[in-house]
Design a protein that fits this description.
The chain has about 220 residues and is mostly helical. It has 12 helices and no strands. The longest helix is centred in the last third of the chain and has 21 residues.
Length: about 220
């Protein structure tokens, strides 16, 4: 397991170094965020294409995902001091029902538990990002758009923990490219005990590698 994430991290580091991280532009970050928003929206049920999203002509789900992407990086410091607040803000940005409010006391407790774990863990960042993603999906703490929130939270962890400071990797695109495996492994994480968690983490390392391949840097 650690070796899978180490190989993925090495691949991301090589891509960023070889393409010249210090020479990247805000436009490339914006493009990465937009690609991620469209991919996340499709996973949430949107039928909007990348062209639709670029033209600001996407459906309601796509617009919700784009709103999240536009403010995502501003939440990096919030994640460092109060992950619960960051997750709530992500949901509020979707414009969904009960914005930012957990659907039940149990959901609120699950968010608090995840927040405490995130604040104290020193585990590798890619693994932490994968676990945050899956735990938010399994908990479904909000009334809607939990998938958009979970995928945005994964990207946010990668930025906040220094894997991808300029947010040039597109993890959402990695999950979309592996959609069947993504959905199957999320079910396994939720219902399959320790083996389900193990399978999800193995899957996540591959999806994150695919996300690196989807970076705008690959188009240079």
């Amino acid at each position: 397991m650690p070796s899978a994430f180490a190989a993925t991290r090495d691949g991301i580091d090589v891509m960023l170094r070889d393409r010249g991280l210090r020479r990247t532009t805000p436009e490339q970050t914006a493009e990465s965020l937009l690609r991620g928003a469209q991919a996340s929206a499709v996973l949430e049920g949107s039928s909007s294409s990348m062209d639709d999203v670029r033209a600001d002509a996407g459906d309601a789900i796509a617009r919700a995902s784009v709103r999240v992407s536009t403010e995502l990086l501003s939440l990096v410091p919030v994640l460092g001091r109060s992950p619960v607040q960051a997750f709530a803000r992500l949901h509020a940005l979707t414009g969904g029902s009960m914005p930012g409010q957990p659907v039940s006391p149990e959901a609120a407790a699950r968010l608090q538990s995840l927040s405490r774990t995130l604040l104290r863990t020193s585990a590798p960042a890619l693994l932490v990002a994968a676990l945050v993603h899956a735990d938010l999906m399994a908990a479904s703490p909000f009334a809607d758009h939990n998938g958009i929130v979970a995928r945005a939270a994964e990207r946010l962890v990668l930025v906040a923990r220094g894997v991808d400071p300029a947010s040039l990797v597109v993890p959402e695109a990695g999950h979309l490219a592996l959609r069947a495996e993504y959905e199957s492994n999320l079910r396994g994480y939720r219902d399959g005990g320790r083996s389900g968690v193990h399978s999800w983490l193995l899957y996540a390392s591959e999806a994150q590698a695919r996300g690196a391949e989807a970076s705008p840097l690959r188009s240079r």
